[in-house]
Amino acid sequence: MRHTPHFLLTDADEVKRLIRENPWATIVSHAASGLVASHYPFLLEESARPGEGALLGEGAPLGEGAGGITLVSHVGRPDEQLHELGQHEVLVIVQGAHGYVSPSAYDSGDFIPTWNHVTAHLYGVPEILSDEENFRVLGDLVDRFEERMPHPVGLDVDEATARRIAKGTVGIRLRVTRFDARAKLSQNKPAHVRERIIAALEGDGPYAQPWLAAEMRRLEGDGAAHPWARPSPAGGVRGSEGDGAAHPGARPSPAGGVRGLDDGNEEQR
Question: What is the DSSP string of 85-128?
């Protein structure tokens, strides 16, 4: 990502929070056949030992005890061949809250819009899991999202069938060796403008996005969390993604998407 000092996110714990709350990620490989991209749910491996294997954004090493970032997931065959998993570095993109910010919230004379977002690029060489470990990770993945259901359903309902279906997948572990992350949340605007932006995002207008507003309030230090977040067993914050529902206040993007709003001199927005 473009170097934007105002918006650098270098706190490994915040990146972990982003992963917990946004497990649906994009994996990108530069294979012999060209670029390959796929989309899969990733889990943060909470048992990763502190200080192991991760670097802060912009290449700075983690401080002692800051904790490594390790992800586990699976791909459907033959994606492991298309991505050449285990042979070279891959990029995993985790997209958090994001949304359009209209200059209608700015002071007079400031008329350039922007797009706020929280995003992390994670790099590492995937390890291929054994069949047994892959099945365990698949079970953990199902349990992670079923735990909020009134009557959770796990792979143990019919383990033999689940194991047969699991043979069509390949498990991976990604020990993140470096990451590049941004929390672009209008930090370069005055406090009264940021408050107007938050109010607009929390309102009922065409670009309402309460999830993004919550991220901005969290940055302001009022303790606001993801609107659907709940405490995790490890004491962190877990999101409620994975149930197929849209984030509250989300709006469809215009046909063809919006380009260029975040590619210019965002330091000035």
Answer: TTSS-EEEEEEEEEEEE-GGGSPTT----EEEEEEEEEEEPPEE
Least Cα distance to 247 among 222, 215, 220 occurs for 215
Distances (CA, A) of 75 to 53, 59, 114, 207: 23, 28, 35, 34
Please state the pTM of the whole predicted model. Answer: 0.79
Whether the CB-CB separation of 51 and 69 falls below 8 Å is answered with no
Q: Tell me the pLDDT of the chain averaged across its residues.
A: 82
DSSP type of residue 35: E
For the residues of 159-217, what is the DSSP string, one character each? HHHHHHHHTTEEEEEEE--EEEEEEESSTTS-HHHHHHHHHHHHSSSTT--HHHHHHHH
Residue 63's pLDDT is 29
Closest to 144 measured CA to CA, from 252, 54, 20, 53: 20
* 207/210 Cα distance (integer angstroms): 10
Q: Is 29's pLDDT higher than 70?
A: yes
> pLDDT tens across 72-111, in order?
999 999 999 999 999 999 999 999 999 999 999 999 999 9
Q: How many Å apart are CA 180 and CA 2, to the nearest integer?
A: 10
Residue type, 66: A
Count of C-beta atoms within a 10 Å radius of residue 267 = 11
Q: pLDDT digits over 108-161, tens only? A: 999 999 999 999 999 999 999 999 999 999 999 999 999 999 999 999 999 999
Encoding tokens for residue 191? 């406090």
Q: How confident is the model at residue 250 (pLDDT cuts 50, 70, 90)?
A: very low
